[in-house]
Amino acid sequence: MATKRLAKKHGLVQKRRIEHPLCPGTGQAKQEFDYLLVLDFESTCWEVKSHTPKPEIIEFPAVLLDLQTGEILAEFQQYVMPVEQPILSSFCTALTGITQRQVETGVPLGTCLVLFSRWIRELCKQYHMTFSTTLPGKRVTTATWSDWDLGICLHQECLRKKLKKPDFFNIWLDVRLSYKNFYRRSPKGLAGALQDLGMVFKGREHSGIVDARNTAILISRMVCDGCILTVTSSLTSCT
Known about the structure:
Elements (H helix, E strand, L loop, with lengths): L1 H8 L25 E5 L2 E2 L13 E10 L4 E9 L10 H7 L3 H5 L4 H19 L1 E2 L7 E7 L3 H14 L9 E4 H9 L5 H8 L11 H17 L8 E2 H4 L1
Parallel strand pairs: 1-6, 5-6, 6-7
Antiparallel strand pairs: 1-3, 2-3, 3-4, 7-8
Helix pairs in contact: 7-8
């Protein structure tokens, strides 16, 4: 029981499957990927935007989405301890709902990356997934609402702190760009994108895990509407 509680604390407990029955029937187009790993980081932030410190990740969430069924198969969530600016601004707590105690009892980003890598390795074994284009297995790649999470936030923080991250974080699908190109309109945020499709954002905005779940729900709807999802971004294209 103690082992299970420790695993849950570090985001390693697989979530019970949640079905999103958005597609009546199985007429959606063939996708390049079988699964998407949907991420949405929360970081330190301040109300005044100019001359502020570089952001540090304080919530590291991810959900594994099955593109064939529209189900969220597993979740990861870990609060992360900022070290460059260890005290959260009142603006940050009000925006994200993340408290000072949550980050103080969190783990350093390097430890979080180790825990996350362990989690995704187990899922790759369980679902026979691979990020590689040459190895056998079901294809998976990362997805985020914009390029900020992987192209700026994680990348720059790892550079500053001299941390090594998995190579699969260097290439991803920008859901916002895919949405804009497919529906030919610019959404007003994630909640606005859902609203434009007659859907409602569920939960608290700017909670990383909640944002990731809602992004996964939106992706499922896009697939049902016939959107072919493909990689849009890489660190090469963002630098």
